[in-house]
Amino acid sequence: MPISNEPIYKRLMDEYDVSYDENGVNGQRLALRLNEIAKIGLTEQNGSNRPGFSQEERQVKQLVAKWMEEAGLEVHQDGAGNVIGRLEGTDLTLPTIMSGSHVDSVPNGGHFDGPLGVLAALEVVEAWRETGYRPRKSYEVVIFSDEEGARFNGGLLGSQAMVGDYEMDELQKLVSVDGLSFEEVLNKIDLSSDTYRQALRDFSDVELFVEVHIEQGKRLERAELPCGIVNGIAGPCWLEVTFTGKAGHAGNTPMNDRKDALVAASEFITSVNALPAKINDTAVATVGKIHISPNGVNVIPGEVTLYVDIRDIYEETRNQLVDLVIQEVENLSKSHQISISYKKTLEIPPVPIKKEIQLLLEEVLREQSIEPMRIPSGAGHDAMIIGQKTDIAMLFVKSIQGISHNPLEWTDLRDSVQAVQVLKRFIERLNERD
């Protein structure tokens, strides 16, 4: 199947109204750059395939670094492969503002998840250059390495290196999907464990990091809004739950003499689906992985292990939901007279976004004639990691049909440009305060 030289440019421009080009922001420039990035790692299904720490990710970073330099930024790469372009402010006693995202993808993913946030941050600089605006506070555009985690089934390794949130002993145990060690993967792009350690940054001079990202959901589309305010990034808690009954012959064991682990697990799954509504409208719980033993057609399941992913943007209510799920485990153990055990395999605190930051974004959205809408982020982002060291903000941009991690992922150019306008004005408002 031939691969187009213009993966997304024509469609972006066909749907665009140039009246959205204001204050130096240029929709065609944004479309051209999204298109150029889309060409790198383009799949036959018109998707993106740029694993973290790959040559394809590296090639995009080099391309965007060139655009950064042409826009007047001082560019450098740290030891984890993160690329930083810096515009010095007029008052070096004031803190720095950062914005950016990532350019790696999942296998056969979309063209907007990550790159839009990077290019939105860069388009702010381009607009300032065209309008003659110079910020008082220094501004940095950042491309983080390996956000998606396609190489090691993990992710966020670039931002984790920047804040020092990792255990090198654990990283060195990693084996990539193509059978390479962490060290071998880094070496292929002229990095190493030693350089990775050197990526640690001092955030004492950073006021805030703001990330623009596609929503990967349908809330904005349903509300017919181009972008919205993220009010928090959910922290996941994963529970591994094992139901132990008694395997037996499916034909010779009477129904009233069974200890069927799968029946109990099925009841549990149904219950889990109803529990978040008892907490609030931002909590979620998902059973997404299950193992059945012996897993035979004519055998009563003797053991079932499943995994529950529990998330909320508020730690207190997230933990309340975890307690409800555990209570359900204990209730079912009694009612089905089987053994049920559980353990936590992951627990990451949610990252709140300060109300004052949300209120400032709300003011900016109203300035741009956009009705403010607050949306929780159920997915992890680099902002979640950077939020361990400094304040963060996030803007979500409308995703058509909520599709993401898929070649059909799409965000209209007019929505993207409006998000850039909001980002630009938000950063300018931050420059107006000390």
TrEMBL record:
* Protein keywords: Hydrolase, Manganese, Metal-binding
Specify whether Acyltransferase is a keyword of the entry.
Answer: no
Q: Which cofactor does it need?
A: Mn(2+)
Q: Which GO terms describe its molecular function?
A: allantoate deiminase activity
**Where would you find the membrane-spanning parts of this chain?**
none
EC number of the protein: 3.5.3.9
Q: Where is the Peptidase M20 dimerisation domain?
A: 233-334
* One Pfam entry name: M20_dimer
Oligomer and partners: Homodimer.
Q: What is this protein called?
A: Allantoate deiminase
What is the species listed in this Swiss-Prot or TrEMBL entry?
Anoxybacillus andreesenii
Q: Which taxonomic lineage does the organism of this UniProt entry have?
A: Bacteria, Bacillati, Bacillota, Bacilli, Bacillales
